[in-house]
Please model this.
Amino acid sequence: MKEEQEALDLAADWADISQGLRKDLGQQLHAQWIKPIQLGSFAKDTGTLDLFLPTEFSANWVADRFADRLSLAWKIARPDVRHVRISVMPGRRVPAGLRLGREAAGRPANDMPPAQPGDALGMGAGDFPALGQGSIGLDPSLTFTSFVSGAANVLASNAAQRMAATETPQFAPLYLKAATGQGKTHLLHAIGHAYLANHQRARIFYCSAERFMVEFVQALRQNQTIEFKARLRGFDLLLVDDIQFIIGKASAQEELLYTIDALLAEGKRLVFAADRAPQALDGVEQRLLSRLSMGLVADIQPADIELRRSILEHRLQRFSPTHVPADVVEFLARTINRNVRELVGGLNKLIAYAQLTGQAVSLQLAEEQLTDILSANRRRITIDEIQRTVCQFYRVDRTEMASKRRARAVVRPRQVAMYLAKVLTPRSYPEIGRKFGGRDHSTVIHAVRLIEDLRTRDADMDGDVRSLLRQLES
Model:
């Protein structure tokens, strides 16, 4: 009991410290480096508190830049904390490396073994240990075939396919810019797969910017920078994800700069991906920013409603014969709008639950099982806002929403407003009924089911509801 209370006290102190650092450092730095920190144990005899981060790179980066600030903050919050130790979370796997240890030191830099039948990479799988994926870290499911294009991503999709084609691309390097979960990593993997299909003996290296920096620092420590440079520049296609993390070590940035120049000079291909434009990268040398933006910077915009529908319909082809009603697809496409990853994840979770429990997929099941995802994506639309918008649309007085009149001219708009209140807000049937003149929950259920049915049979009603949804969600 005492240990649990001490853990709670530590957690409360850390919440206060983290909040203070967020104000001092800003949202971006805090989210990137402070938020991932997890509390470890506190040794009272030595006054040492352990703080853990998920990777060696992030632990080193935080220790270099924030150790003093974290130590001071903890000493102010808890005088018994005399030392703060920052390290990697115990049990975390070290990222797969370029194998520049003794095994590789005695071999030539470009010593790829002869291509074997069925080995499109022209390299042994052991040269690039994979973390549950392909032999160079490419996810076999992330191809151009599984990528759904639309107005929001057509430029990036077409540019990615050109980068993988047999013809030499007109732009180099390609820089994919997109917020989290919008498909930039998918396109990176798709480029790798397509390039291998078109160039069967090609050498490809896919990595994150964090991994690049970790490998470079390790090479420095082991006096193997020559081998590192030679092997890196022996690739035909370099794919670097999350380039926004290429901050800090000036030497690593300089090496990436020289690598870009060397590969481009030999006509090789480079693709980078990040969550912001090159000019918005923090802590990156100007010369490197210039190289990153010298080719084509292709934006991937947030998926619009049409693209979200297409993604869901494309994904549903994998789950045949599981039936997902059209109203559920529409509900997911409209409600889960922050990013594509959450949209697909929500659909996967819903179908998995239905299959494992033997239940039919329905709107009610979606609302019950995807509560967290739906609440995070929903704009806070109120019932008052819905009533006001519906009354303006149908040109009826606002008081009719709560009146007892049963004329068709006011009943139908009232039912539409009840339906929208259920679709767009987390309110229960009784709560919605109270906002409509204290009506019983059964009246609301009837209205919701009636409008759902009318949308499938009456094109005018479906058009009205779609128009109202666009107004309320814009």
Observations:
- The chain has four domains: 2-88, 133-300, 305-377, 383-473.
- Residues 93-135 have pLDDT under 50 and may be disordered.
- The domain at 305-377 is CATH 1.10.8.60 (Helicase, Ruva Protein; domain 3).
